Amino acid sequence: MTNPAPRLAMVAGEASGDLLASLLLKGLHARWPGTQATGIGGPRMIAEGFSAWWPSAKLSVFGYVDALMHLRELLRIRSQLRERLLVERPDVFIGVDAPDFNFGLETALRAGGLRTVHFVCPSIWAWRGERVKKLAAAADHVLCLFPFEPALLAEHGVAATFVGHPLADLIPLAPPREAARQALGLGAGDTIVALLPGSRRSEIRHIAPALLQAAVQMAAAWPVQRGPLRFVVPVAPGLRPLLLPLLAQHAPGLAVDLVDGRSHEVLAACDVTLLASGTATLEAALFKRPMVIVYRLHWLNYRMMRGKAYLPWHGLPNILAREFLVPELIQDQATPQAIAREALAWLDNPDRCAQLAQRFETMHLTLRQDTARKASDAIATLLQA
């Protein structure tokens, strides 16, 4: 490679993209210590030396309605970023997830002679399969999180490498349950329920009320002789002001511990988690925790997306297992009563929880591939081409 310290441009949207990109950056810096990276990113990326021209929160929209409300600003940002990158000409552009934003940008950059990598194969196997054509035009190479994806992309002429999931490298095979409880000030004998309503503002609005109401029902049904039942919510950056009024409205009088960030410690510490469908479900699986997957969104978004789904599963653990390992409660099914019932069923059945943990350990080992090294190998090969 002619340049031992490549100049990178990256775009990551939302908290999950910021996390994935930061872990990738850590590996790239280990391989090329002088690597420079600029573009759109979040606090985790910035902690790895990333220079953010715009914050990743600007891309944290979900669904057709949310996107339409922010379309003008998103198009302006993408246009300005495209023009700047075509002038500065980084050695490679890496789009981290955010396909609706990144595909158009990558296509323009590639047409302008820049090398492009897309990190995270879009879930064409789950819904919106037509995006594979856009991906083929956008990316010189795709870094895939899951083992079945490269062969699927090869059918469409897209070069791809299975790199595993960086979270599988980051999260220990044996979760540090007791250490996490001590760090969070939770009792060793307490039963801990983690509530993770999502990292987007729209998710908080649509999902948090049902989770909080379910927590109230769980507390009412919990036998006193089983000891304390405690609820913990790791709050994504900037979302505490949105969550506090919902807590007062939907769970008045319920003791809920709000923790800024620290979602991994909360997952390591908990006995069961109620959480929004998304990356957090895979994190919970890697921490070997039983879960109830919940998702609710604007009715129009749901109506438009429902007919495009190819699989019966929504949560990543179920998709990877190709079966319902854990319950999913989507839209109208996601009632507080149903959520509470499924959560209590986990807490009432330790043997079922142990069997689930064994399945999750197998999944963990499959995804543990030293992602940073494999990804940097793929990028190095592209740079040498």
TrEMBL record:
<keyword id="KW-0443">Lipid metabolism</keyword>
<keyword id="KW-0808">Transferase</keyword>
<dbReference type="InterPro" id="IPR003835">
    <property type="entry name" value="Glyco_trans_19"/>
</dbReference>
<comment type="pathway">
    <text>Bacterial outer membrane biogenesis; LPS lipid A biosynthesis.</text>
</comment>
<comment type="function">
    <text>Condensation of UDP-2,3-diacylglucosamine and 2,3-diacylglucosamine-1-phosphate to form lipid A disaccharide, a precursor of lipid A, a phosphorylated glycolipid that anchors the lipopolysaccharide to the outer membrane of the cell.</text>
</comment>
<keyword id="KW-0441">Lipid A biosynthesis</keyword>
<keyword id="KW-0444">Lipid biosynthesis</keyword>
<keyword id="KW-0328">Glycosyltransferase</keyword>
<comment type="similarity">
    <text>Belongs to the LpxB family.</text>
</comment>
<protein>
    <recommendedName>
        <fullName>Lipid-A-disaccharide synthase</fullName>
        <ecNumber>2.4.1.182</ecNumber>
    </recommendedName>
</protein>
<dbReference type="Pfam" id="PF02684">
    <property type="entry name" value="LpxB"/>
</dbReference>
